[in-house]
Specification:
This protein is of the alpha+beta class. It contains 3 helices and 4 strands. Strands 1, 2, 3 and 4 form a 4-stranded antiparallel sheet that branches.
Length: 120
């Protein structure tokens, strides 16, 4: 899912100001769910100012999501390395790594939910 959050007042940041463009009036936030074979799932998100949300959502859906299938969701370090090297030719900075961070956040959320369940 892609949330488009209008800001009450524009934000001037290094990526949206100076010669690069006007102040950003919108935050785009791709929100993802990593679903396991069982009942547990993890929620993750990323954000970008002014634009790039649709591109980030496409990277998540078309590239990163399918690369997670069959992986152990608790082995987030191995997953991070796998995803990083899978897409390193596309982009190791910016939009691609932010999308990968949304996956990492979802995996940490999943771990937290599993630990909470085991402690009950």
């Amino acid at each position: 899912m892609l949330l488009e959050l209008p800001l009450q007042r524009p934000v001037v940041a290094a990526v949206s100001s100076g010669g690069r463009g006007a102040p950003a009036g919108t935050v785009f936030m791709p929100v993802i769910t990593v679903q396991t074979d069982g009942p547990l799932s993890g929620l993750g998100y990323a954000w970008c100012l002014g634009g790039g949300g649709r591109a980030m959502t496409t990277v998540l859906r078309e590239d990163l999501g399918p690369a997670l299938v069959g992986k152990n969701p608790l082995d987030h370090e191995a997953i991070w390395d796998h995803l990083y090297w899978k897409l390193q030719g596309v982009g190791r900075h910016g939009l691609v790594i932010q999308a990968q961070s949304a996956v990492d956040l979802a995996l940490w959320d999943l771990k937290g939910k599993l630990l909470e369940r085991l402690s009950q």
